[in-house]
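Exercise: predict the fold of this chain.
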Amino acid sequence: MTARLRNESGQAVLMTVLFLAVLIGVAAMSVDVGSWYRQQRQAQATADAAALAGAQALPADPTQAQVLAAQYAASNGGGVLPTGGITLRSDFEPNDTVVVKVSKDVPSFFANLFAIDHATVTATAAARAGVPNQVDGVAPIVVNKLHPLLSGPGCPCFNVPTTLPLGKDGAPGAFGLVDLNGGSNGNGDLATWIDTGYDGFLGLGDYQSNPGAQFNSNGVQSALSDRLGTELLFPVYDTLSGGGANAEYDVIGWVGFHLTSFDAQGNSGDLSGWFTKVIWNGLQSSTNQHLPDFGVYSVELVN
């Protein structure tokens, strides 16, 4: 009898069964947790996209911003908007940021064994519309900040037909064209920058004038023709100093211009169209720099 009581055979089988049960439970839970994580990522993608969509209307139309965010979230199936799921926030300007919160109930599978029948995942995103301090796709034609539709009473004024003069800007050798890459360039560069915009982000500050009037070149003429009926992004300057190859424009902002026609020959000419508000590919500062607002905004996700 004593020998039988001391016999430990069979305990290994019991421990193995217990270990397997725990292992299967952990594996089953990992399947559910993985599913919940994937659904949370989907909800986050929906919140991000809905916030970016809503911010397109800010800061001018907060109501439309909420409508756009709600429509995008609903059409992309990444979750539901709880009550108060879309709010507005004022970071740098009143109502310049839209905040979207998405929630989603995810059913459990193996976790039901532990009385967990579902999990609720949430995601929050905020997107801000603001004046960028760097922009991509700039065209090399400058606009004086003193243009009546930029600095006149109640302006900037948009969608009002106007003309932009091309020609000498008050400094010898300055013809309203800027050197965007900081080096020598010819008609080909200017034509490309007009046709497709400068490839890269440019900040505010001093830019050298492109000496000489190059409006007669076939490339520049063709590029301007290609852009008829479209929006271009022009640098706005406040001062022009120096002359010739040393002339510099102090760029303080950016403005969108809808081009309808042009007459650019030799040393002079003009562009016809109107200033327009645009959402442009740009980078905002992390702090409020109180940049001049000429109607150009960029949209990006923020904390």
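Check your answer against the key: Helices lie at 2-6, 11-55, 62-76, 148-151, 187-196, 218-226.
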